[in-house]
Every structure is written in C-alpha cells, then in structure tokens.
Amino acid sequence: MSQAASAPSLWIGSSRPARERLSKAVAALTRARRLQVLVDHGFAGLLAGLGLATFAVLVARLVPLPYPPWQLGVAAVIIAVALALLVGWKRRPDALDVTIRADLTLNLKQRLSTAWEFMTVHDDDELAERLAVQAVKAGLPAHTGLVFPFQVNRWGRLAPLAATALLLVSVVDLNWMQAPAPHAVDEQVVSEGQRLGAFGRAMQERARRNQLPRSARQAAELERLGARMESGALTRGEALGQLRGMSESLDKERMQALAEANQTDIGPLGESSPIAPDLDPGAMLERLQRGALDSADTRALAEHLADLERSGIPRRDLEDALKRHLSGDNEGLREMLEKLAQIDRARKEGKELDSAREQVRRSRENLGESPGGTDGERDLAFNIEWDEDGDRSAKDAANEGADGSRRSEKALGAARSGSQGDSSLAHDRQHAPVGPDSGQSGPVLKPESRAREGEVFVTQARVRPRSGRPSVENVAMSSEFASQVEEVLSKEQYPAHYKAFVRRYFLNLSQGRVPQQQSIDKRGAQ
Amino acid sequence: MSDEPRLALAHERLEALRRQIQQRIVGHHDLVNSILACLLSSGHALLEGVPGLGKTLLVKTLSDALHLEFARIQFTPDLMPADIIGTQMVSQDDEGRRHFQFQQGPVFTQLLLADEINRATPKTQSALLEAMEEKRVTVGRTGHALQEPFMVLATQNPIEMEGTYPLPEAQLDRFLLKLNATYPSAGELSQIVDRTTGAPMPAVEPVLNAGELLELRELVRSVVIASHVKDYAIRMVLATHAGNAEATPMARRYVRHGASPRGLLAIVLTAKALALFAGRINVSFDDLAAAAPPALRHRILLNFEGEAEGIDVEDLIAEVIRETPTVHGDERA
Q1: A228 lies in which domain range?
Q2: ipTM
Q3: Which of A3, A11, A114 lies at the smallest CB-CB distance from B7?
Q4: What is the Cα gyration radius of chain B?
Q5: Chain A 115-154, residues with CB within 8 Å of chain B CB atoms
C-alpha cells in the first residue's frame, strides 16, 4: 500500500515471531472453520436425508416397492449426509474470510483481517510486520472454538422434528390415507388373505421360537399383506402384484440365508432338508459351552456321521474332533458344532421361507395366476377362447398328417403353449376366423378342479357355441391313446386342474362319435 | 524522534489536548473528538447548534490549546468578500511612488472561526470556497497560498432563519464534517455553572504546535484500511443513493441526492483519525460507522416527499449503518 509505505514508520519494532504466530493462528482458525462447515453441512444433510427418508417410507408403505421401507429410509439418510459432507469438504473456507469472522467474533477491530490481508496480498513487508505485531498484541484466540464453536445449527435443530416425522410415518397406520377401494370386495382375495395372515402369524411364532430373524421378518410382511388382502383393500390384480413381490422377496431371503451358510466353507448345502432329524447342533453347542455335553450327544454325532458328511462336514474332521473331545480338547468340536448350528439355522430359515413361498405361490394360483407368472401370461392363460372352427394352428396340425399319436402330441403341444401364454399362438387365435358365429359371446363355463388337497381352483373359459356341422369330422382314437395322453401329461408341468381338464377332454375325444373320419378335432389342439 | 513509539506519543499529545479543552469545556466529548478528528484529517468542520451551547467557546479553546494563528470572523449580512480574503490597497513608498499592495484578510491564518456563517450573503460565503478547498486565495490575477495547517471551523444557528442565507450545497460539501452541538446534561450544567460563575477559568496552555500537528496528519494518513473494510465504507455511501441496489428502504423513498465521493473520503479519513485515537494503525468497521453520521448528514439531500414528511437525515443514516452488512453477502455482524 503506497500510502503506508511512504508514511513514517510506526513505533512497533520488527519481530519475526509475530508473523509466524499470526500464520499459525489463522491456519488453526481455518481448520476449525472447515470443520464447522463440515458439521453444518452434515446437519443440513441429515435434515434433508430425514425428509427424504420420511417421503421414501411413506411411499414404500403406500405403494408396493421391491425394497423394505426401513432400507429405503436408511439409504436416503446415508446418501444425503454423504453428499452434504462431500459438498462441505469441497467448500474450503477462505483464510481472509476466516480472519474477518474472527475479528467480528472477538471484537478485534479488524486487526487480524487487516494484518492477514497485508501479509498475503501486499508487498510491504515492514507494514505487514507492524500489523502482525498489532494483531498479536490485541490477542489471538486461545481456542479456535471461541470463534468457530461446534454448535447445532438451525438445520440440526430441525432434525429431531424430521426424525419424529419419520418415526410417525413408520409406525402410524396409513390405511386411512389410501383411497377407499372403488371395487367390489373380491371374496377369493379375502379368503387368501385370511389364509396367508394365519400362516404368517404361525410362521412368526415358529421363527421367534427358533430364532430365525429372516423368517420372522418375512412372516411379518406376509401377515401384513394377508391383513391388507383380508381387509378387501386390494383388487385381485393388486393382490397378485403384491404376492409376486412377496415371492421375489422370499426367494431372495432364502437364497441369502443359504448363501450365508455356504460361506463357512463346509461344502454345498441341501436346500431345506434337516441335517438329521434328531440332531440339534445349537443345543449341543450350548451344552458344550456349559460343559454339559454328555456321551449321548457324542454318540448321536457319531451315529450321524454320514448325514453330517452330506451336509459338508468331513467325516474325518468330525471323528478327529470327537476324539479330541474325549481326550479333553473341546476346541475342534466347538468349531464343528458352530458350523453345524449355522448350517442348521440356515436350513431352518430356508425351510420356513420355502414353505412361505409355497403358500404365496398357492395363493397366486388360487387367485388365477398361471405358473408362468407375469400379467401377460396370466391374461393369455385365462382368456382362451375355446372356439371350434377358428383355430388356424390346430387346423394346420390336423391337416399335416394322419398319424394319430403324432397329431395328438402336436395338439397337446399347442394346448400347452396356449396354457403357458405363448403370445404368437394367442395372437393367431385372436385374429383367426371364427366361423359364422364370430363375435357372439357364448355361455361361461366354470370348471372346478382340486389343485391340491384342501384348495379349490376356479377358472373360466369361454366356449363358442357350435353352429351346424363341424367342418372337420371326429375320428376314433386307438386304445393306446389313453396311455399316450397320460405319458404326455406326465411330462408336462400343468396345474393339477389343467391336467384333469386336458385329460378329460382328450379322453372324451377318444370315444370318437364319428368313427369313420380320421381327422382330429381341432379343439384338442387347443 | 527517538525510539519512543510514535503512535503512543501521538496518543499522549492528543490526550493532553483533550485535557486542555476539557478544562474549559464541559461535556461535548463526542463533539471535541470529532473536531480533533477533523483537525487531524485536514478538514473543516461546520458546527450547528442553538445559541449558548458553547460552540464559539469550544473553537476559541481549541485555538488556545494549539500553537496556531487564530482569527475570527463574525459573519453578518453586510460582510463583503474582501473583508475575508483581503484587498488591494494603494500605498506609497519612500520615494513617493504609489502602487497597489495586497492587504491580507483574516482568512490568512491557521485556525479560522467563521461565526454564524449563514448570516453572510452567498457571495461572501463563497469567498471561502477556494480557501477551504485549495488552501489559497486569488485576488486579481495573483494567487496567495494560505499557511499550513489551515482549518475553518464555522458555526451556524439552525433556528433563526430570518435574515440568514443557508449555505449552498457546494459550500456544505467543502466541510469534512457537520457536527451537532447538543444540550448538556444536568450534571454538565451544574459543572458549567460552577466553572463560569465562580473563580476565573483556568488558562489553557498550548500543547501542540503546527509542526506536530502536520506530523500527526501524516500519521493519520498512514493508518491502513483493509479492502473489505473499505468495501464496507463504499457500500454505506452507495446505500444513500436512491437508485442503487444497496440503497436502504428509506433512501429509496426519500433521498434525492446521496452522498458524493467526497463523502466517502470524509468517512475514511475521519475513521482513520478515530483509529489513531484508539491506538490502532488500521481502520475498523466501528470507526467507519462512527464517522458516517457527521460525514454524511450534510451530504444527503432529501426529495420533496422526505421534506414533506419531515424525515430526519439522522434516522436515514442510522438505517444505512444498521442495514449495511459489514461483510458483503453476509448478515450484519
């Protein structure tokens, strides 16, 4: 500064340490300010994260999502805080700004900031030295916390409110927020909801008893889903959507449970079979730790060496561990039992989850979803129009050859394709000529069949009325036809009621009302 | 000067000057401080106050405490410019030849008291313009330099407007500071009574000569101002401009003309003097805030609405100080 450079020197003598002390003080203040900025950003990120988490949990509870609400919430908070900290880390405070703040906070009358500016910007060393001495004499802050204290900023003060909102959104019953179902209550959905809810409760009880956390979680989800279905809030389509999500979640959990057990390097696991029916590794481990493992336990282990080897425990290792146990060294046996307990728990988890998945699968089937699974497949599977004259693929199949068994196999193949939702066939069927009564709707049939014990499956198929004489005559089937039908049916994966339906259909065909004609009824192809 | 700290010495001299003034003047601490700041800033001051507040006494006391030439001009309506700056007189030398000779007026002094300056006509008032700004007077074709240091201390009475001529804006702008003399408190009044109605007042001894005063003026100019502090002063001045983004709400509504760049210089120079008084070699935000009212109050012109509503410029300046953030982009600390 020229005016200062040419001005008469002030009294302050030269002392190098003043500038060094000033530099150190400013460096410490800058670090403190940076930390404060980070903390401030952290609080802002926390508030934003809690807000996002609240929103995410709310959405997850209102709309079915593939992730549990708590995972979404935690992820939102972590991501928001991490981003805020990153932004805070990149916003390095300016040293001059720091000194200005220090001046204002400590009422240093701008001594510090002026000295710092003249030290760093201007070339007048003498003046800078004098200003530094003046600043040092005015009193540098003993603790940076006096200038930049760690304090909860306004964002931090709002965070408890956001956390409370998150907590409320997580625990409060949100059913009232969902619009009342505009649809009629689907009794089948309600019935399945009751069944799933009961199963979920029982599963929860078992999971708690056996200390199976994954199963307990999934059982709670299942019970919740069952309750919603039972309440009539879900349409059949919505229920199926949620059931599909539940299936995927169960699959994932089951695979994870089994994978965790596999990490013990004890070989591949059987999926859900118990290690041995009368062997409880967890109880044995507890007894071993208490020093109460008796000869009956060791005998049981020795008797089940083969079972244990199948589970991935080398027979030699176990024998060795048992020998060492008898000689007083329990370490090897303890490790074996820990591995066995882990495997046992994973298998129990797998078994429970498998059972739950089966229940969900049954519910899906009972609600009308085909084993194919997707909406498109289900729609195709349950909207088959069983017309007599219009199926071009069946007609082609009938015209291709005279061999009955080959034709019947083709027809069965076509039927299978239809039932499994082959879109090309469905497309052909939709656009094929349907004869003189095309466009008329016929009576709705509701064939019922027992899918499995205790379950009733209801499906619908629309059959077009026959008009006049068939264009293709029926043929008499050979005596081998029934066995061929059974053979084919045994190779295919149909729902039980489909299998019965197809069998009945073809066996009826085999009676041959018009024996002199050798063509196959195209309905068989469907 | 020896190794003795010059700043400490300056501080000591100024304290001595204050003590001398306070022997005769009761109260008016801020007024005295501002006059001393004006003195050290090489400026001129306009003292405004009702009669009887001790304005003239203050200036006379100051002159007594300084080893400076002092002159007083009582401004009246019939005062002519030549009565201030002097005139050409016909004189005769020893050989009988006659010639014009410049007879210096009272302005050729170091400390000039222009008492009741608003009673003279504008023509006479303007005779001081050149002297105040350029420290010289021109008579005919000849310029005459004034002595250094030169300072004008003018007084005026704000209530008796009959037969007065308010100072034009250009003249007002020449004054570094406009200072208001206020009524003394009860305690101060008691002291005034004791001092003036009893024993004779103690004599004031000069404690500062012209050379020392000039050195102090240099010292004031050596006080540094950091860029962010200077920025604060600039924003304060801009805040008085109605059309500027920094303008305060009152300034936007009531101000016709804001402070001039000379106003900014006045603030900074006065703040430097105040910093020196405080023993600092740097200007602080507080120095600027303290310097702003006397430096700006006579440089802000209210518009018709402001005049009609009786807006007090002091309130406007207070708002400027209050609303202008010390650090740009930050809230007022």
Answers
A1: 181-367
A2: 0.81
A3: A11
A4: 21
A5: 115, 117-118, 121, 127, 130-131, 134
